[in-house]
Amino acid sequence: MYQRSLFILFTLIFCSAAYSQEENTVLTKDKKILNITRASDKPKIDGVLDDAIWDNSDVASDFIQFKPDIGNALPTEQRTEVKMSYDDDAIYVAAYLHDDPSKIMKQLTSRDNFGQNDFFAVILNPNNDAQNDTEFFVFSSGQQADAIANPTIGEDFSWNAVWQSAVQIVDDGWIVEMEIPYRTLRFPDQEEPTWGLQFHRHFRRDRSQYTWNELDPTKGNIGLYHGELIGLKNLKPPVRLNLYPFSTGIVNNFDGETDTDLTFGMDVKYGITDNFTLDATLVPDFSQAGFDRVVLNLGPFEQTFSEQRQFFTEGVDLFSKGDLFFSRRVGSKPSGDLQLADNEEADIPEEVKVLNALKVSGRTKKGLGIGIFNAITEKTYANITNTDTNESRREVVEPFTNYNILVVDQQFNGNSSVSLINTNVMREGEFRDANATALVTNLQNKRNTYLIRGEAKMSNVNPQFDTTQTGYSTFFYIAKSHGNLRYSFDHSYADTKFEINDLGLNFRNNFNNFGADIWYQIFEPKGNLNRYSANAYINYRNLANPGTFTGTNFGAEYNAQTKSINNYGFWVDMEAGKQYDYFESRDGRYFIYENIASVGGYYSSNYNKVFAFDINANTFKIFEDGRDLFGYNLSLSPRVRPNDKLLMVYSFNLNMSNGSRGYATYQDNQPIFGERNRKRVTNTISANYTFNPFNSLALTFRHYWDTVNYDDELFTLLDNGRLTTEQGYTVDNVDESPNINFSTWNIDLSYSWQFAPGSFLTALYRNQLFNFDTMSEDSYSESLDTLFDQPIQHTISVRLQYFLDFNGIKSIFKKNNKPQTRQANNFLSTRKKRYGINS
After folding, report:
1. What element of type H or E holds 85?
2. Which regions of 445-566 does DSSP assign to beta strands (E)?
3. With 80 as the cut, is the pLDDT of residue 600 above it?
4. Of 68, 380, 594, 641, which has fewest CB within 10 angstroms of its CB?
5. Count H helices, E strands: the chain?
6. Has residue 255 got a pLDDT over 60?
């Protein structure tokens, strides 16, 4: 294993050196240049271009299309004209977007939701390094979106900044005015800098998009195609101190008991240096995070959910490198085990309270990125009750715990990077500690024709009362990354001791897998299609130890979009021959199944229309002697948008599986398998009514129902991977029936009001129901009646968050100083005249 890791490490270093020495090849034509002028007076951000600064500003125009066509110019009646200015506080942008007003799409949406909108975007790169962009979008409806972007993560819209914009619809198009404060950007003192600059304009009605500086979508990351902004002089970054104090009032009612809580806390953003920012949440409150979409998990691996807490979703691009950070670990269920007597019951908290968390991140002008993450969770106890004596005691199930991440990332060549990441979990006392380290590379030659990605990881776990275990994992990927025809090869490896789940997410280890892909895509419309792509793949899987074959699959996929903006596609997949599943049994033995084929497709109609829909269907079947596995999945999601303020979406999903086999229960020191019929029905409704860009009402409803009904005869697993009924297990004679009837119900109704820039009042009502029993033959209506018999949880919360900018506070005091002085002088003058006092 050491030899493997050293080989990959030397390969990555060699590739880095080779790529960095390659001659620079110009990808684009000469870059466009826009000369910005300093504003003597700050323009009023109202969407009316009557400020003097716009009279003599240079104009950025002649936008060029890059999708769906490439290279087309906008006609005169749809021309785009952009002007820029700046002062000591901000960058100002004015854009006149000519168009027929009746064709402009302008759906009101929540922030960062593009909806059915035309948009205008400004992309700024103060380092002009082609890799670290800050993006600001304004929709024709007046709403905003913003993101940070680089070639590794793409666009991260979880990042949010506070800036101003205004939109006016006029007789010949629409006008955008923007104020982008320097606090939203990261840059050092600059005398006469050159910034990377790009403008985008999107027409939603035909999904066409244009840029100011010409962009080639067939190769390279889009940052390589920026133009340049000159004319900035003597820029000094402001003190970047933003405070977000908040308070949340909560009322919970469950099973006749009501409790209330009032919390206070604050989020802080502080610019430690010109390029590095501290983000901290003090006394964090995550009570308004969205509910998890819980499903019944029959598999051998843990069930996971997406992150809903804002602090852990915003600005985590550096920390995501190497896939060592799964933020739901922080504040998740306690990690400790309890040793209970037969007459004891334990009440274990569902989550651990996060006491505080902070992030420090940034990047120097030479492309060196540094990220530091730290979070602390409190000591957590389980309450244990003796059912005979009713005596109770407490036992620690999660000690005081510290989570740490350190990332160092060096970018070069405008499209490549090398990163070193370390994560560390330290638990107080004798609980387990963990450490993981990864070297990650993302390399492209300067002509953007080939891509290499590599990872070498090491984990180190110190379990409670056990010896330290060290594990290794590697990943290698090489691909042709230009042109219509592309292909790739990948290899992934992990030994039996690789373990990162204290702060990361790794469903399994012990694998040695190979994969290959080939695909063809078009970049310009052809016939009736705006675009299409077709790809084929094959995967070959093995265990790392022992090095035995576990299975293979191959398949193909096709996706397309018509000129009517309808999308469709289909796919086929085959697991051919014997497949050896070493995880379903839960005891390390393999379970054999053979020849499963699946095929499916989807259709998505044009969302621009008042009524649209999505449909997705697939079916699968096993071809194995003595087996009759068959199943299908059907998903239907109609949506209606009667006007630009209201959108309603209903989704229905039906999943049927008859004759599948898998783990059912554990008895007599062995896994018991069963053949089962499974039926899943999910209904969801979402409705959003947006009064204006600052007020919105949202409803989310979800009901999930799942039944698993086993055949009477159950199986045991033989050492050859096959199943037998010879031991005579049945559903009736095992200790616990494996049959399941599972259902959950959630409703979220929320109102959000942005009453000032960056300041929000959010009111939320939530209810929740849950039921789990063995009545697997109950019908949908019977199961729903049983669900409604369970106690329901009601939650009402109101959260107030206010945005305070240190520079704004300073300016208020400065402005107030002068009137107070004049008022004092006037008062003294009046007194002198009244009482005959001479100067």
Report:
1. strand 80-86
2. 450-462, 469-480, 485-494, 511-521, 529-542, 549-562
3. yes
4. 594
5. 4, 43
6. yes
